[in-house]
Specification:
Elements lengths: L14 H11 L5 H5 L5 E3 L7 H4 L6 E14 L5 E8 L2 E7 L4 H6 L5 E11 L2 E5 L2 E4 L11 E3 L8 H12 L10 H7 L4 H9 L7 H5 L4 H28 L9 H9 L6 H14 L6 E6 L5 H14 L3 E5 L3 H15 L6 E4 L5 H13 L4 E4 L13 E7 L6 H10 L10 E6 L5 H7 L4 E5 L9 E7 L3 H13 L3 E5 L14 H11 L5 E4 L5 H12 L5 E4 L12 E6 L7 H8 L9 E7 L5 H12 L3 H12 L1 H4 L19 H17 L1 H12 L9
Parallel strand pairs: 4-6, 9-14, 9-15, 10-12, 10-13, 11-12, 13-14, 16-21, 17-19, 17-20, 18-19, 20-21
Antiparallel strand pairs: 1-8, 2-3, 2-5, 3-4, 5-6, 5-7
Helix pairs in contact: 7-9, 9-24, 9-25, 10-12, 11-12, 21-22
């Protein structure tokens, strides 16, 4: 019987290779990455406090030095290591709830230890729980600078990071990317001096200025970071413009007839942004415009008029929406406007049967369908366009960058090297600061006016204990001829969150309101079932619609004037604002009731207070940015874009303005400086910014 050959196991990785892998996971691949990995905070290890004095510093960090008097493992109330440290002035207990056997040996009586931690008063006097400590010789020198504490990944100690960063600082090229006259004009400190100070600040530097990042060294870092971002985005914009696009210069019969048959006049804001879009579409390079507008401001009709211009100019247009409900809303509304004017509109989603899908794809490929509306099914293989001139992406932040590029590339004409024009829409208003910083590569149009006749929405916050009163309010509204939404955050029971579920609420409301028809719609239903319920609600056959957040965007039922949001404290501000925007679309006074579970945390309180105080989407977005910070607020852009690590858009607006102006100047006058600055700050990551 043949003997199977033994395969040799892969050689074990060395400690250095393992550490390099861990650093790479944190994005630290080069020496300059390490040098720009700046401290989160600092610890003052430059002085020793006598133990007796530390005892009076409860709640504050202190560093003490003494001899271990006793060291033992105790088992009451749980297993822990308790070490007594003694100096000439008194004693202090160090308590470790998690420890290794080697630590007990390391901290045996008679050992001299330097320990730093927060002092608190325990049962046996002053103590530190899990202090940082090291074994030292008598008279060991103290550090001459504050000790940096770095953001660390799993398995990377502060000591390792400090060594790696110090080694990297001895190897990098410190040449300043910005010339001295520019630094003087901007009153910025040199790069090397700033970085070295932040990694090893002398003890006389203001710790407060380091911590709140107002120190001039931090200002230089923030400016450089903002400048790199502005340069990269502007360069990406230039690269896109170099590609070229088919100019869509005709606003012909379709555009004219479309406007003439609308049962309403465009608002001043709609007319303004339409002109901005039309001017872009006439250019021989691709439009890259973000159309912002609050809930109900009329973005859809502007998008449809942009599509009409593309069709008038002999091209196709495609509109992609993130959910089937939203895509279907757009399809119904736009087809109702377009088809009487002789425009074939195709409908393409993942839930279509194979035959229907093939028929729709044939219409698109032949060019018979001039406008295509659907979900991400538009970017799947097998979907070929005849001549795609305009791509419209609704709620663009819900698509990954790859998906948005895939749709744009459907219209890529390799021979002519042209790409389609792109219009992105968002009902989540982005504060001006954020738009200038993160969307510096886009033109931004804002519809800042609501159509006439929209009624203001009154918002109330109500404790869950008053559910019965809310149910009575719903009943009364329906008897007056109105309809209501009741939104729940989860479909199935989750013991951890103990949230009321959509299915339970539906059953409870059916029981409490036997004379009303209560519908249910959630994300796990088949699209056809979902649409059946939505159609019933649109026709007023269903009085109360219990739903999860699938109704967050795009649902337009003017007769619905009451919105109840269950467990409102679990939703983000942007979601609450979107949900509230489903009512107030008709002439009846509308109300939004936010049911919450006590007690509320600080963030939840701030959110609910904001919802009560304002219905202005831009003000809500501004406060949302304050509460969450830009990283989380825009986690939505999904572009792989490095969020700002150092600059704060609330406090550093003046730096954003400066960085934008300097970026424009450098791009025109000093391409070599641009290359050097981007290489330093973005390394090989610049491609992430280009979509």
């Amino acid at each position: 019987m043949p003997v199977a050959k033994r395969t040799s196991a892969a050689p074990a990785k060395s400690k250095a290779e393992i550490a390099r892998t861990k650093l790479a996971r944190m994005g630290l691949r080069t020496d300059m990455d390490l040098v720009l990995h700046l401290p989160l905070r600092y610890e003052d290890e430059t002085q020793i406090v006598p133990i007796r004095e530390a005892g009076f510093m409860a709640g504050s960090p202190a560093q003490v030095e003494g001899i271990v008097a006793t060291s033992e493992v105790q088992y009451r109330p749980r297993r822990q290591m308790v070490v007594t440290l003694r100096d000439d002035s008194g004693e202090l207990v160090m308590r470790f709830l998690n420890f290794y056997g080697s630590q007990l040996k390391q901290l045996e009586p008679g050992t001299r230890v330097r320990a730093r931690g927060e002092v608190r008063h325990g049962f046996f006097g002053a103590e530190m729980v899990h202090p940082t400590y090291k074994v030292v010789n008598e008279g060991a020198p103290l550090p001459q600078s504050l000790t940096p504490v770095y953001p660390a990944g799993e398995g990377l100690s502060q000591a390792y990071l400090r060594t790696a960063i110090n080694n990297a600082m001895s190897r990098v090229d410190w040449r300043d990317t910005l010339p001295p006259p520019m630094l003087q004009a901007l009153r910025l400190q040199p790069f090397e001096a700033s970085v070295r100070l932040l990694h090893n600040p002398p003890p006389d530097v203001s710790e407060a200025a380091l911590m709140d990042r107002s120190h001039p060294a931090w200002t230089r870092m923030k400016f450089d970071e903002l400048l790199a971002q502005q340069l990269s985005l502007k360069r990406a914009q230039a690269a896109r413009r170099a590609k070229g696009a088919t100019p869509l210069g005709v606003t012909g019969a379709l555009s004219r007839d479309f406007l003439a048959q609308l049962p309403f006049a465009l608002t001043g804001a709609q007319q303004r942004v339409l002109e901005e879009i039309r001017a872009d579409l006439r250019q021989p390079y691709p439009m890259q415009r973000l159309l912002q507008g609050d809930v109900g401001s009329g973005k859809t009709v502007v998008a449809a008029l942009a599509a009409a211009q593309a069709i008038d100019s002999g091209c196709q247009a495609a509109l992609m929406a993130p959910t089937e409900i939203l895509a279907e809303q757009h399809f119904r509304k736009i087809a109702q406007w377009m088809e009487p004017l002789g425009v074939r509109v195709a409908w393409l989603t993942g839930s279509l049967k194979k035959k229907e899908k093939e028929a729709a794809q044939a219409l698109v490929e032949s060019g018979e369908a001039r406008l295509v509306i659907g979900t991400h099914a538009l970017i799947q293989e097998g979907v070929e366009f005849d001549r795609l001139g305009l791509v419209i992406v609704d709620e663009q932040h819900r698509f990954g960058v790859g998906q948005r590029l895939a749709l744009r590339n459907k219209g890529l004409e390799q021979a002519a090297q042209t790409v389609p024009h792109q219009l992105m829409m968002s009902a989540t208003p982005i504060p001006r600061t954020l738009a200038m910083t993160y969307y510096a590569d886009l033109e931004v149009s804002v519809i800042d006016e609501l159509p006439p006749g929209r009624t203001p929405i009154v918002t109330r916050t109500i404790d869950q204990n008053r559910r019965e009163q809310v149910i009575e309010r719903v009943h009364a509204a329906v008897l007056e001829g109105r309809q209501a939404y009741w939104v729940c955050p989860l479909i199935e029971e989750s013991e951890a969150l103990q949230l009321q579920t959509a299915t339970d609420t539906h059953a409870a409301l059916q029981e409490a309101l036997p004379d009303l028809r209560v519908g249910l719609v959630h994300g796990r239903m088949k699209p056809a079932e979902k649409q059946l319920v939505m159609d019933g609600f649109i026709r007023n056959d269903i009085h109360v619609l219990v739903a999860t957040t699938v109704i967050e965007v795009g649902v337009d039922v003017p007769n619905a004037s009451l919105m109840v949001i269950e467990h409102a404290e679990r939703f983000g501000l942007s979601q609450l604002h979107q949900l509230r925007g489903r009512v107030g679309r008709g002439s009846a006074a509308s109300v939004c009731l936010l049911l919450y579970q006590s007690p509320l945390g600080m963030t939840a309180k701030q959110r609910l207070m904001t919802m009560r105080e304002t219905t202005d989407g831009f003000e809500i977005a501004r406060r949302d940015l304050e509460i969450r910070g830009p990283g989380e607020f825009l986690g939505a852009r999904q572009s792989g874009q490095a969020m700002l690590r150092f600059a704060d858009l609330e406090t550093d607006q003046w730096l954003v303005d400066q960085a934008r102006d300097v970026a424009q100047k450098l791009l025109h006058e000093a391409p070599a400086i641009v290359d050097a600055h981007l290489a330093r700050w973005l390394g090989g990551r610049e491609e992430f910014l280009k979509a």
